[in-house]
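This part of the workshop introduces the protein records we will be handling. A record pairs a protein's sequence with a compact description of its fold. Backbone structure tokens are a discrete shorthand for how the chain folds in space. The question running through the whole workshop is how a given chain folds. The record below serves as our worked example for the rest of this section.
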Amino acid sequence: MIVAFGVIGVLILLLIYFVLRAQNLQKDLILSRSANKQSNSKVNYAQRNLVLVTDALEKNLTQRLQSLYKSRLVNQDQYNALLPLMTYFSTIVMNCCEKGDSLEESLKKALTNEEISLEGIQLVVKDLPSNLRMLWSKNTADGFIAFCQAVTSVKSSSDSQDAAQAKKAS
């Protein structure tokens, strides 16, 4: 009889232990869910802001490319190849960031309704300076962003250097 009470006592202690452990695990689960909701909220906020930034950058890059073309610093073939990149800049970057696509996959999706193909763009990129080709060859969103920034500013910066050298010569 005493053994039976001892076994029952041990079982009750085990039951209390497991009940308390289950309660602690529930508290941890609730805290984890709360932290997960906060993280998701921050990610959504960051993503919305990223969309706004890429849209603004898209407009800026498109304007810069058009300005270079009007100034005849970019030829017609380059303009025709680079304009779709600048026009779909936001879409391409967001595909890379959200879906984890490579630059090539994002470009194929973005250029489905365009006259120029990825191969046509690559032919134009081959004729660009090596530093631009290196940025392009990264095949990532950050490489694409750096490429677009550089390709729309390299012409104007080399022009200003040429103008400065011309002034020194005269």
